[in-house]
Amino acid sequence: MLPANVEKVRTLVPMRFVSEALGEEVVWDHVNRYVWIGHKNVPKLEDAVEAVEIKPFLKYFKGTDSELVLFNRTTQKQHTKVCVIKEMDFPVSIDGEIYYRMDLATTATGYVYTRASTNDNTGTMGTSTYLLQTGQPLKLRGEAAGMREKHGDITLHNNLIASRVDKSRYQNQRLGEASHY
Q1: CA max distance for the chain
Q2: Exposure of 131 by Cβ count < 10 A (0-12 exposed, 13-18 middle, 19+ buried)?
Q3: Which of 3, 51, 67, 123 lies at a CB distance of 3.0 to 4.6 Å from 81, suitable for a disulfide?
Q4: CB 42 within 8 A of CB 29
């Protein structure tokens, strides 16, 4: 066990020791790189993230698919609010599926993709995301199912940022130079 330590006028104590001394279970989740202390209850999106006005984000919704994404089929009106999930908001439950984290990753050959870690074990349709870029049309990104990884109850979904269509259409623009949201 590590002893308590003072760094920059702060006292650092071993979390495992303190947590277990208070009667809480400590579990390391190696797939999601979390330390769970106590319960593993995950909040619903609406309890963890406050919806904000969509107006500042409308500039990212360009192209023909945008109208479909912005339309709320339940109310038959355009969405007026959006939830912006930040790294510190994870894990969060969205429609019963837990999203533990979402990261940007790169393959050995240089392809950039998003990686979402979820409890989705159905493995049928995959998880789609939308790429929003300033000055570019909205781009649906389906899961690269061949890159899906299973780790017990956890599924890692990988969605490529660039598609073959993008390569031919935007071959002169490097993705690193684009603004991503």
Answers
A1: 60
A2: buried
A3: 51
A4: no
